[in-house]
Structures are given as C-alpha cells and as structure tokens.
Amino acid sequence: MNTAKADPGRRRYALGAAGGLVAAAVGLALAHLAAAAVRPEASPVTAIGGAVVDRTPVGLKEWAIRQFGTGDKLVLALGILVVLGAVAALAGLLAVRRMPVGLLLAGAVGVLGAVAALSRPEASWKDALPSLVGGAAAAGTLYLLVRALNRPGTGAGARTGAGADGPDRRGFGRLVLGALALSAAAGYAGRRLGAFGSAGATASRTDLVLPAPSVPAPPVPAGADLRIPGASRFLTPNGDFYRVDTALVVPRVDADAWRLRIHGEGVARPLALGLRELLARPLVEHDITLTCVSNEVGGPYAGNARWLGVRLADLLREAGVRPPSQGGPADQLVARSVDGMTLGTPVETVMDGREALLAVGMNGEPLPFLHGFPVRMVVPGLYGYVSACKWLTELRLTTFSAYDAYWVRRSWAPRAPVKTQSRIDTPRPSAEPAPGRVAVAGVAWAQHRGIARVEVRVDAGAWQEARLGEADGDDTWRQWVWIWEAAPGPHTLEVRATDRTGAVQTGERAGTVPDGATGWHAVAVRVRAR
What we know:
By secondary structure, the protein is α+β, with helices and mostly antiparallel strands.
C-alpha cells in the first residue's frame, strides 16, 4: 500500500527532473538563436565559458592546456553544459514541489548568463538579451511541463497506470514532444542565421587576393628540411599549426569591414586603416617560428610558417612614433583583438629592426580564421602572449607602468623574450627501436638569436654534437639529427641547444609561469634485444 502510493510521487519527481532538462534545451536553443542575431559571443555557454576562463587560476589553465591541448575549449563547453544540465534537473525537481522556487532557479541561470555576457570585453547591453531570452523561455517551458505533472491523470492516463493521484503523463509527453520540436527548430534556425551572418566574412577571405611581396623571402634552403621520418616538417602546414587562445568562438571578421586604429601616447598622426589601405603598403615576406609561453619543455606549441605582412615599425613611424631609445614617451604597444583580448609588446622591440609584421598571409594564403584573419601581429623573438595578437583591430601606445595587458593581470611577466629550447621528435617516448643505428632528431629554436649547435647525450653521458639542418635565418627553428648506435636495454636521451650568442640552454627545470619553461627535453626508450 505505502509503496504503491509512493510510486506516483517518485515518478512525478523523475519526470520533473526530465522536464527541467527539456526546458533547458528550449532555453539554450532560443538563446543561441538570439545570439545569432546579436553576436555569437553573446551565447550563454560562450559568455559563461569566457567568464570562467578569465577567473580560472593560472595553474589550472596550464593543467587544462597540458591535458587537453587545443581541445580545452571543447572540454570547457561540455563541462558547462553538464553543470547547466544538473542545475536544470534540480530546477525541475524543485518546481514539482514548489513551483516558484524551481522557476526562480531556471530564471537565475539566465540572469547569470546575462551578467557573464556583460562582463566580457567589448560587450554592450544587447549581449545580455540572449541569456535573458533563454532564461525566460526555460522558466516558461518548465512551468507548462510541471503544471501538466501536477495535474492528475484522467481517462486514458488513468488506464495506463497514472491513476487518479498520478501525473498526467500523456499531457506531459505531448508538451515534451512540442518543446523538443521547438528546441530543434530554434537550434537549426540559429545555425542557419549564424552561417548567414558569417557568410560575408567567408566570402571576403575567399575573394581576397594577396599582393606580391615587395620584399619576398628567399627560398627555403635545400638543406633546411632534413626529412627525417617522425621529425617535424620545416614549414608547418596551416592545418597543423598550434592554436592557443581564449576565444571559445572563433571570430569571423569581414575583411571589407575591418578597420585598424593606431593611437595613444607619442602618436603624432593617428591612423585608421582598412584592409585595402594596409595592402597598398609594401609587403614583406619572412619565415618566423612562433612559440606559446604555455609550451612545456618538449611540448608541441611551436610552429614555423612563411608570413606575409606590413612592417609594424614602418606603420608606427608613419604615425610619428619614436621608440624610447629615441625619446619616445611610450614603451608599450597594446594590441587589441576584436574579442577584446589585449597583448602588450615592448615598443623598442618592434622598432629595433627585426621583421615585426602585421601579417595578412600565412604559407601562401590569406590567414585562416583560426589564426587571425584578416590581420594579426607576428614578432620574432617574443612569446605569443606578448606579441602575436590575432584578429587585430587596435594598436594603442602607452607605458608598462600605466597598463597591464590581459595575461600580465594573470601572473605572467610583462616582457617575455623566447628562451632557447630544443625538442626530440623521434624516437617518441616509450619507443622500442631496434638495436643499431637510430636517428635521434628534432628541432631547436632561439628566435632572433638563431641556433648555433645542438647536442645529444645518452644516459647522462658525454654530450655529442648533432648535425644541423641549414639555417633559414635567425627567426626560425632548425632541424637536427644525431645517429645513435643503440644498444639493447632502457635508455634516456637528452638534448640541449646553444644559440648564436654562445648561450647554452639551461638544464634547470622551471615551469611555464611566469615567462616560459626551461630545462632539457628527455625521452626514455627501450631498445629491443638483438
């Protein structure tokens, strides 16, 4: 008797939790549709994700990058959806017992999304609308579903087992189907509207014809790529180039609408340029290796490409900027992305004669959207977080004492020249090569200083000099190879590099924070018995 009476209540709570999930699906779909009309960054999942990224401790961020690589954004989005699902189920449970409490929780999630959206850089009041629409839709859907549950089943519902005291499962089921249909339709419409909104950007990239460089890069030396199986290619294909940034939604900027503003302290003649005006200036082609400061010793976040762009120093001089060494008042150049990201670069560095570029091309084609189309910064010799602003829209001259850029406010150093590093690409960790001659190979980099020597040692023995690939200037990595007469058993291989200033890569281990990792890359292998 007691069990029978309890069953309808348990069913009602279970269906209430399911109703909460359905209501959340409707809310998210309608919020996504509204965000397509406002801007993709205003979607509640994206806005909350961005707020989470901004407030995540540096150590946890670095752990996520190590564990998930470029998939960290997908993991974050999935995590947010799981949490939202749990909250939605709780709201459904609460609404069955006390309707106002459940509805209040559902609406509160929408308010949270709106607050997160408004906290994002470059936000306007419109960015709050998608989350508010989604919260209201979720609360309204939950109200209808729970009202059906709290209405006793009658007629056919009673004959199917709902009973006079049980929920109206048939009415609830019809509402669920209708809500899921609405969610699917809104989601589809949001995707279509989003695709329509980005169609102009896609077309502008497809139609863009890059002018020939006024200063073309020389051909890559024939001996630069040693073509060792398992080693990195000398030039990294665009599709394989690493990506580390905070953009949960990749900005798709219409090249025809893009503008760049150069202003600030010491700017005698502020500039405002469109892409056509930028491309009308002399273009320089240069091979540059980029490295992320989050790259651990032996890590994958380095890539080498042929870049095409305008010399940044020429633009700054056109604006009347002088470096500090010549009496200029500004020592920091703050680059701002269309999504509000800020990176600070030393003015002296970008005007010291190196090929610091506002890049428009990468490996012979317009920049991919993932890598900053239509314009990004590339500065050889500096880690990306202080130099490689993607989706660039503003350059402001200021001082390091007056302004801390995004990553500096999160415990990273304001100045970050690339440290000399080397990596073993082959053999891989835990490999089991056959005894005899084994090619140990990889890459080494010390951008703007160049690599002079690479050495390898086995089991902490004497250092042996590796053969270097031909240098393609000082701003790119160099390939290297050392032929090892491998004996059976376990062994540890280590590598170190010396740059062209004579400085030897330190073996002292340090983490990535605050200005890049140090130490020798080591790989443990087991050579098979003969």
